[in-house]
What does this fold into?
Amino acid sequence: MNNLAIAAYGLRKSYGDKVVLDGVDLSVPEGTIFSLLGPNGAGKTTAVKILSTLISADPGSGDIRVGGHDLTTDPQSVRAAIGVTGQFSAVDGLITGEENMLLMADLHHLSKVEGRRTAARLLERFDLVDAARKPASTYSGGMKRRLDLAMTLVGTPRVIFLDEPTTGLDPRSRHNMWVIIRELVADGATVFLTTQYLEEADELADRIAVLNNGRIAAEGTADELKRLIPGGHVRLRFTDPAAYRSAATTLPDAARDDESLALRIPSDGSQRELRYVLDQLDAAGVEADELTVHTPDLDDVFFALTDGVRVPAPTKVAAR
Ligand SMILES: Nc1ncnc2c1ncn2[C@@H]1O[C@H](COP(=O)(O)OP(=O)(O)OP(=O)(O)O)[C@@H](O)[C@H]1O
Ligand SMILES: [Mg+2]
It folds into this structure.
């Protein structure tokens, strides 16, 4: 049985009347990747800020331990054990990448020699050697993100908080970041990651929690979460509003997306169920412009568990 790198019970936080976290339990075993998912404003950054001692939880919250230390009674030890890469960059654009790294080394009280060695090693690891002497304001978004993470690692943290580490990165940079995150965990670190990309949580996380309305709506492995969602669906898309309306009448079970003229019919994707849908459309004399069959993925879990109606993108095209 692993020790817990993060253990929080009954986490609460309100801003004025607005309850952001309404009794959230989080437990993350050492050496694993935990992903907190949730729509904009769900409270992911708030949770990261509390767990990393940047803000305090409201009175009435239960015990919080990070890296084996009590957050309330021993925040200094927590700070010594963690690293945080915030949602918004901590990089100072006016100085070079290398100077940013050396500044971090100073903050961590590394000796001059040790600081230079650590900075050089991390700049190398994050492929920033060529850019190291240039002002960070000239870096691309992906380079800034890498520098941000490199700065976080100066203190060799055992518990690493990454708040949306790959937002805005192109697919290659995102994959590179995933490789780095896996390496950190292979080296024994624990990663607490927030993300908007369900694919990212699916790819990286040992366990995933979905935050919604201040509470954890579901928690488990990606597979466990997917099993919460029954079956897939058939999606029909129309360009003619009249055809869309007749189809919606003839298929009363369908969820409507009036904006994009799409219908979503719960279905296991079997031939029999597809035929039923097509027969109904034929009987009503309407033809869909696009028919796709969708098998459940983490997106479905997200949409099912969080607020806001949206028809997710199809995964495979079955017929036209
Ligand atoms: N300092 C603050 N004062 C007042 N309200 C705040 C403050 N910080 C956060 N909030 C509110 O708390 C809620 C949660 O914000 P938070 O930044 O934690 O969400 P998030 O899940 O990280 O969202 P995003 O995906 O957009 O980053 C939001 O409604 C936000 O407006
Ligand atoms: Mg956030």
Q: What stands out?
A: The longest strand covers residues 4-15. Confidence is low (pLDDT under 50) at residues 309-320.
